[in-house]
Design brief:
The structure holds two protein chains of two kinds. Chain A contains 16 helices and no strands. By secondary structure, chain A is mostly helical. In chain A, helix 11 packs antiparallel against helix 12 and helix 14 packs antiparallel against helix 16. The longest helix of chain A has 36 residues. The radius of gyration of chain A is 24 Å and the shape is globular. In chain B, a hairpin with a 4-residue loop joins strand 3 and strand 4. The longest helix of chain B is centred in the first third of the chain and has 23 residues. Chain B is built from 20 helices and six strands. By secondary structure, chain B is of the alpha+beta class. In chain B, the strands form two sheets. In chain B, strands 4-3-5-6 form a four-stranded antiparallel beta sheet. In chain B, strands 1-2 form a two-stranded antiparallel sheet. The chains are: A mainly alpha, B alpha+beta. At the A-B interface, helix 1, helix 11 and helix 16 of A face helix 4, helix 13, helix 15, strand 3 and strand 4 of B.
Amino acid sequence: MKRIIFVLAVTVFCACSKSSDSGGETPDAFDKTAMLTNYADNLIIPGYTALQQKLQVLQTASDAFLAAPTLVTQAALKTAYVDAQLQYERITSFHFGPAENALLDIFANFSGSLDYNFNTAGQLTGFSIDSVSIENNISTGTYNLTTMTRASFYSQGFPALNYLYFGPNAIAKFGTNTAARVKYVKDLVTRLKNLVDGIVTGWGTYRTEFIANTKTNVGSPIGNMVNQMAYQMDLLKGPRIGWPFGKQSNGTVFATKVEAYFTGNSVALAVENINALKKTYNGGGNGKGLSDYLVALNKTTLNNDVLAQFDLVSTKLSAIPDPLSTSLTTQTAAVEAAYKEIQKLLTLLKTDVASATAVQITFVDNDGD
Amino acid sequence: METKEDQISSGAALQLPVSHRSLAKRVTALLASFRQPVSIAPLITFRIVFGLLMFLSLIRFWYRGWITSVYVTPDFHFTYIGFEWVQPLGNLSMHLLFLTIIIAALLITLGLFYRLAAILFFIGFTYVELLDVTTYLNHYYFISLVAFLMIWLPANRDYSLDVLIKPEKRRKQVPAWTIGILRFQMAVVYIFAGLAKLNPDWLLDAQPMRTWLPAKTHLPIVGAYMYETWVAYLFSWFGAVYDLFIVFFLLNRKTRPYAYAVVVIFHIATAIFFPGIGMFPYVMISCSLIFFSGAFHEKLQRFFPFYDHSFNDAAYRFKYNLSIVVGIYVFLQLVIPLRFLLYPGHLFWHEEGYRFSWRVMLMEKAGSAYFTVKDKDHSIEVNNAEFLTPLQEKMMCTQPDLILKYAHHLAKVFETRGLVNPEVYGEVYVSLNGERSRLFIDSTINLAETPVSWKHYNWVLPYRN
């Protein structure tokens, strides 16, 4: 008995101390902390800060429009709005940490989520706008923007503002029940701003934790980024392009369910999104990114193919003329071509890149062997 | 006492004098040695440790919300062939079922209503495992097997509440095979896991270690070496040698303490490197204690409170001759892992005979699957997230039989949505052991018409063209 305890103790001691005798860098070691620092300092924090600033500009333009709803103020507002939403598309791969805590993706730009794309009436949800709930909120004046329901997600954020600013007879509608409508819009802008302000503040402290965690498991920074890129590709394949195009509805086109229907810049937003995903993948081009990590893992061919596929998707998407709502029926070949390439990129990211980096594509933790 | 028992249970039949003996006599002697009374102590420790470990791991499963996310949330479950009738209960009943198994595990530990508890635990645990193939794990299978064995073993005949209530039931000796069968079960796990590692990917390419280890650079001290290829080879070869030979070192009295130390270190290392493997290392560390001698366990049990040192002469005897039943069990355990030999094609790619064969942490496989459901008027692309949880989808993408089951489910669902005799086509891409993803199944085959069977999956594209 004593001998066994002794043997155990000695062996554990040896096993623990043996590996500490020589340190030093190995030749092809890849510095993940440097990569994460690049992400935090050059992409994520500047991305959210820029969004914060653009929402500030939007708020100013919005207030001007609300004070005097005319074609002129609306045009100025449109520039600020489009600008802010484009910036939003640039941070979609960073929906974790503070953004996840704030549930930014469901409150700022709800996409219907992937597990449920048709409602009980068989109508596509996707980037819907719940105009009934919005008008109801305005007329009753009682609403809670933090409620966790689909009606709540669909009556705030960019989609709701898109409808309120640029929807049918938008200017005229400010003539009736003006005060309540103005208040609702102001509340939506404030809510959006507060969400993003909170995230920028959150990154002030989260940054340290982010760059220190070089794991790749579920919930780690690297795991999160790979999963978010795959998820955004799923959104591109589903709610952004495939669903309104009728891929899951036997060709029934849902033209009004495209992202930002009333501003008619869905393709521009999708292109911005895919270009931003590429930047996430290559670390912005200058600093270290996942792309460099793949090269360090001797996956140069895969890396080149992924980069080329990003460019191809971007090109094919750009070939679809905006507004997408019209092109879905008039430019089917172009949409189909883009869709095909999106699926290829999705497979590369979800299967090959995830596998090569040993990242699990799943949003839940589980036992395994 | 110690040497005698060691001889008997460490496959000591080989050490019997063989000269001048006929085969029949040798078999008789061998069978007699299995029935030789030995100390019950190893069985007692095993019962306590196994029960406690199950108690803790089931509570962990509950605490992590996995009962709900794995068995309550999904609308569809991947059943095992022949077990389609095993369906999950509702939210409340599922939790009550787990509560029952948890209490049963505790009763096993305490040795109270032991046989009933063992039966409940086995049925409950196995029922849960049969609910969904996508949650299959080798060590869950191992737990089911051990739980089955525990039903028949007299593991409550000492240091238990059962003997406290009925002291006349107490026995200090049991037939050698009751301990031997558990050692055999451990040996099956280790040796088959070792044999499974004897493949070119593992030995020559150090895959999947070469893929997994660079993800572990965050570990203190050893992290810096994780990009080194030789480390991946070291892990692979050491793992194979360990699995193949550890049982023999555990069986030998002289090497046993060292071997057990290696068991502890090896499994703690795997727990640190691969936290995703959950309870597996702890199951192996605790169950390996069964290799220690009766004398060792008796000494160990002196530290237990209320331990009764008095010796009881009568050995436990089974009322019936179980030789044939035990023989069949042993035979099945040796044959089931080998059934892959009946199938052509690359085992890792087709996965025919992959489950229930102790292939632990053996490959890195990932996939993406896109399905289209068609009839003459429709062509609809399926949104997998609508039907499957992320875990189910992930497991389905790479396992042919699950792809088929899912396709059949889709055909049924879309029939209710108004499609007439729907056809299901799958475009599935799979990446194996760091290779580039490739088309996995024939995308022109109507999966709805392809039957689930034990026959070779000829609709899966060959691994190499």
